[in-house]
TrEMBL record:
Source organism of this protein record: Zoogloea oryzae
SUPFAM superfamilies, sorted: HlyD-like secretion proteins
Pfam short name (any one): BSH_CusB
Domain CusB-like barrel-sandwich hybrid: 128-256
UniProt protein name: Efflux RND transporter periplasmic adaptor subunit
Keywords linked to the UniProt accession: Transport
PANTHER family, sorted: CATION EFFLUX SYSTEM PROTEIN CUSB (PTHR30097)
């Protein structure tokens, strides 16, 4: 009985083991369910140059610097390429780059010509006191250069033997005319002619009528004669010295009437066509930064300075309170605008290559078309468009060069290379250390770590700043995190830069 039970138990165990093995084998052979996050294999399109140059390859290779070409997979290139000559950027990139547009519109073009000049006395209001006879300075009444004088104020008294003799001659002739009243006509005529000759001689020496009347009334010759200021002004030159001898024609005093002055400005050659006689001008000087003086262009000189390529322009203006001093440095603004309506766009909308001018037309849905235009005169912040646009066209006025970097605009314009397959995103991120900064050139030398999006190894290279404000606070040795784009083949521009610690802290918070 015991042996029979043992055999039965062994049989049950064997059957159970066989069934369990079959069940376990069946479970192990069932293929696992696919993972939810598994991605399908991507199709390789081509390999592009790691430095962004217009060079692609169908097989892996290295550039002259030993860097591997970057693979571009299906889906990374533009799904629906833009028409030839058109640029397409997604909405996220447009917002990040800060693209802004304005419409071309008809409006008066306000033009301002700015130039530097200097204040000078009005040459028509300069007066020189120069005796016409020989004599001596007997007494000085005004003996300081720069002293203000009134019209008719005595400047100095002069003694001249020649003048005394001429006065005596006139007195004798006048007395002779009086004594010959009852004489014959011929005698009276001869004496009158002698008296008139003596009088003319005194007048030719600039003896005033008042002095001549006093001489005729007194009947005695005066030893000295007074010289008066012919105008109210400032003594700008004094050569008279008390007791000194002077000769006919010697300039003893110069008096300037500064109630009106000139500003002699140097206007650049390209602005001469817009400047015109009679145009209103605003003049400012450093001495009175809160004041402006109004004047008008009185004369455009007919010559150009070959060294500075400028033309002198004379501005005449009033000088209330004599605030403007000769020799002052002045800045002028000439209103050369016109009331005529012309088609204009903001100056920032124009991309000027030197040989042609191009604007970017916003077509909507992130599409931009470069269009060559012909420009006219320039205003304060706008420029006239003669050909290539019509009123209402939306043009890009901000981030033009970043669109250029984002889309390789030069290739789109067809000026440098044939169209290449669209590359992967050109916005890249990296971290590094600031080696040096060139503020004048707007560049920075960075030692950065590997750039995964470009498959760059760690290295040192030079970047440019998108705008000068990005340089603020940067110092050599600072650790930074930055984003950059390719503005032109081989030209890399930083669009965002911040301390690396801030970035690390932000990731830690997430």
């Amino acid at each position: 009985m015991k042996s029979t039970a043992a055999l039965a138990l062994a049989a049950v165990i064997a059957v159970g083991g066989t069934a369990g093995g079959y069940w376990f084998g069946t479970r192990s052979a069932t293929p696992p369910a696919p993972a939810a996050d598994a991605k399908p294999a991507r199709k390789l399109l081509y390999y592009r140059n790691p430095m962004g140059l217009p060079d692609t390859s169908q097989t892996p290779k290295k550039d002259p610097m030993g860097m591997d070409y970057i693979p571009v997979y299906e889906g990374e290139a533009e799904a629906t390429p833009a028409p030839a000559g058109q640029v397409k950027i997604n909405a996220e990139r447009i917002q990040k780059l800060g693209v802004r547009t304005e419409t071309a519109e008809l409006r008066p073009l306000g033009a301002q010509i700015r130039a530097a000049g200097r204040v000078e006395p009005d040459e028509q209001r300069l007066y020189t006191i120069a005796p016409k006879f020989e004599g001596y300075v007997e007494r000085l009444h005004v003996n300081v250069t720069g002293q203000p004088v009134a019209r008719g104020q005595v400047l100095f008294e002069a003694y001249s033997p020649e003048l005394v003799a001429a006065q005596r001659e006139y007195q004798i002739a006048a007395q002779g005319v009086e004594s010959l009243k009852n004489a014959g006509n011929e005698a009276q005529a001869g004496m009158k002619q002698l008296a008139e000759s003596a009088l003319i001689r005194l007048r030719n020496w600039d003896i005033s009528d008042a002095q001549l009347r006093a001489l005729a009334k007194s009947g005695a010759a005066t030893r000295t004669i007074s010289f008066q200021s012919p105008v109210a002004g400032i003594v700008t030159e004094k050569k008279a010295v008390q007791g000194a001898r002077f000769m006919p024609g010697d300039a003893l005093y110069q008096v300037a009437d500064l109630s009106r002055v000139w500003v002699m400005a140097d206007v650049f050659e390209q602005d001469i066509a817009a400047a015109r006689v009679g145009a209103p001008v605003k003049v400012r000087v450093d001495a009175y930064p809160d004041k402006s003086f109004d004047g008008r262009i009185a004369y455009l000189y007919p010559s150009v300075n070959a060294d500075t390529r400028t033309t002198p322009v004379r501005v005449e203006l009033a000088n209330p309170g004599l605030l403007l001093k000769p020799g002052m440095f002045a800045r002028i603004e000439i209103n050369a605008g016109s009331s005529a309506q012309v088609l204009t766009v903001p100056t920032s909308a124009v991309i000027d290559s030197g040989t042609r001018q191009v604007v970017l037309i916003a077509e909507g849905e992130g599409r931009f078309t470069p269009r060559e235009v012909k420009l006219g005169s320039r205003g304060e912040d706008r420029v006239a468009v003669l050909d290539g646009l019509k009123a209402g066209d939306a043009v890009v006025v901000a981030a033009n060069f970043l669109i250029d970097a984002e889309s390789n605009l030069k290739a789109a314009l067809g000026g440098f290379a044939p169209p290449q397959p669209a590359a992967a995103s050109v916005g890249h991120k990296a971290e590094g250390v600031v080696e040096s900064i060139d503020v004048s050139d707007g560049t920075v030398m960075l030692t950065h770590g590997p750039v995964a999006s470009l498959k760059w190894p760690a290295m040192s290279m030079e970047f440019k700043f998108a705008n000068p404000s990005l340089q603020a606070g940067l110092k050599p040795g600072a650790k930074v995190a930055f984003e950059f784009v390719e503005r032109a083949p081989g030209e890399w521009v930083i669009t965002v830069i911040r301390p690396a610690a801030t970035t690390s802290a932000a990731h830690a918070g997430h």
